[in-house]
């Protein structure tokens, strides 16, 4: 998963609840855009441009931050909309 892909999923304007599945089998529910944080790309302060952070932070029910390396994300599962 790339930073661009996860940023698009976390966009509050088009957000749809989803679950992040990692290579270790852990599942992290993201019911709202406030439950995921994508760190900003550092500003270029010299000759060599800094590498953008390769992780996201997700928060569970107890507001405990979990750091997930983007390369460890194996799948994104979208939650089905409730039917009336």
Largest sheet: 3 strands, antiparallel
SSE pattern: HEEEEEE
Shape: globular
CATH topology: SH3 type barrels
Shape-level CATH architecture: Roll
Oligomer: single chain
Number of helices: 1
Number of domains: 1
Classify the beta-strand content into a percent band: 25-35%
Helix % is: under 10%
Which blocks of ≥5 consecutive residues have pLDDT under 50? none
Q: Number of DSSP strands? A: 6
Account of the protein in words:
With 84 residues, the protein is mainly β. The strands form 2 sheets. The protein has a 3-stranded antiparallel β-sheet with strand order 2-1-6, with no helix packed on it. Strands 3-4-5 form a 3-stranded antiparallel β-sheet, with no helix packed on it. The chain is 8% helix and 32% strand. A hairpin with a 5-residue loop joins β4 and β5. The protein is globular and about 45 Å long. The protein has a single domain, classed as SH3 type barrels (Roll). It has 1 helix and 6 strands.
């Amino acid at each position: 998963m790339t930073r661009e892909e996860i940023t698009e999923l976390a966009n509050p304007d088009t957000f749809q609840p989803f679950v992040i599945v990692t290579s270790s089998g852990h599942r992290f529910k993201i019911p709202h855009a406030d439950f995921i944080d994508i760190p900003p790309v550092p500003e270029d302060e010299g000759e060599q441009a800094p590498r953008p952070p390769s992780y996201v932070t997700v928060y569970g029910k107890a507001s405990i931050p979990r750091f997930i390396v983007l390369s460890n994300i194996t799948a994104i599962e979208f939650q089905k909309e409730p039917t009336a």
